[in-house]
Amino acid sequence: MPPLPTRALYILPLAVFLVMAAYFALGLTKDPKIIPSALIDKPVPAFKLPPIEGGRGNGFSSDDLKGDVTVVNVFASWCIPCRAEHPLVTELAEMKIARVYGLNYKDNPADALRWLRALGDSYYATGADRDGRVGIDWGVYGVPETFIVDRAGKIRHKHVGPMTSDILKNQIVPIIKDLNK
Amino acid sequence: MTARFSLSSIAAALLAAALTLAPGPAAAVNPNEMLKDPLLEKRAREISKVLRCLVCQNQSIDDSDADLARDLRVIVRQRLTTGDSDGEVIDYVVARYGDFVLLKPPFKGATLVLWIGPALIALGGLAAMIAYLRRNRRSAAAGGAAKATPLTADEQRRLAKLMKDGAPWAD
User: Which residues in chain B are closer than 8 Å to A32, comparing Cβ atoms?
Assistant: First the structure.
């Protein structure tokens, strides 16, 4: 056997190992809790939600999510991260770059109203999804979740888990501004 | 066979039987979720076993106690009672949650490497091994014979002497 290929052959396992190690290291940086949404670039599911019982407004439906760029924030009073996220939802709503709808997921109406009274209700409108069926149509699996819907009524972005001010500033707002162009 | 031996073997057999016959992890499905039609219920259970609970991720919705898993179990049963086929029920859930909701990834373009990769790597390894062994045998056959140079006249003489007299140290 000529000597050069042999030497290359000895290095091969190491090379294969390094490639695999790099690949796995990359995998470790990803959060397995975050599942890519099946609904990105798809039209919002057809739905019509009543308002939170005893609350303001008339709820909202898929028709409200057409014509303008909108945000749908899935929240619940029993959801602790929602509480942490809520000031940022308020901040986003006050920027007036998109209407922010609140989807109250599997919540007790009295609890939800008390929660909104305590933390502030800056939603353009809220809808109550008592049995979680609309949430399932949206592919919701962990609250809070935030969707960005474009003018055509297509879901363009989904954020799972609480927004942070970094995520709001560097992901959510730029996407909304871009869709508003 | 002594009495002690048979006692311990009976105990071992009983333990083994208990372990084998013990039911697997109890399913999370509640009696009030179950369908009255046993055939439909059986189909619902089979479907629930291939759908992932997205909250706990490595449990099926049949195993999981999570709220979302319960909701999905109920939806699976509702769709079955309205006449959906098993495939239609699964498609309904996949349309909302993506392929990730299937515990067994589907066989398609994006997952080709996942399904065929290991077999390809194994075949590649096998091919490399066969090639290596063949080359080894060929070089042993060709190179090995060429390297065996005949003995010199002097060596022949020494060999003949050893064969005749025996080794000098053999006395």
Answer: 57
Query: pTM for the complete prediction?
Result: 0.73
Question: How far B36 CA sits from the closest chain A CA (Å)?
Answer: 22
Cβ contacts (< 8 Å) between B98 and chain A: which residues?
Answer: 35-38, 139
Domain boundary among B51, B83, B104: B104
Which of chain B's residues have a Cβ under 8 Å away from the Cβ of A78?
A: none
Q: Name the pairing type of β-strands A99-105 and A125-129.
A: parallel
- The number of folded domains in chain B is 2
Domain identity same for B23 and B96: yes
Residue B120 in any domain: the answer is yes
Integer Cα distance of B121 and A148 in angstroms: 42
**Residues B100 and B23 placed together within one structural domain of the fold:** yes
Q: What are A62-79's pLDDT values in tens digits? A: 999 999 999 999 999 999
Burial state string for A129-167 with b = 16 or more CB within 10 A and e = fewer than 16: bbebbbbbbbbbbbbbbbbbbbeebbbbbbbbbbbeeeb
Q: Convert the pLDDT of each residue in B33-90 to its tens digit.
A: 888 889 999 999 999 999 999 888 789 999 998 889 999 999 999 999 999 999 999 9
Nearest-CB residue to A38 (from B57, B95, B139): B95
Q: ipTM surpassing 0.90, yes or no?
A: no
Give me the domain span that covers residue B126.
114-143
Summarised one tens digit per residue, pLDDT across range B78-90 is: 999 999 999 999 9
The shortest C-alpha distance from A116 to chain B (Å) reads 23
Residue B52 shares a structural domain with residue B98: yes
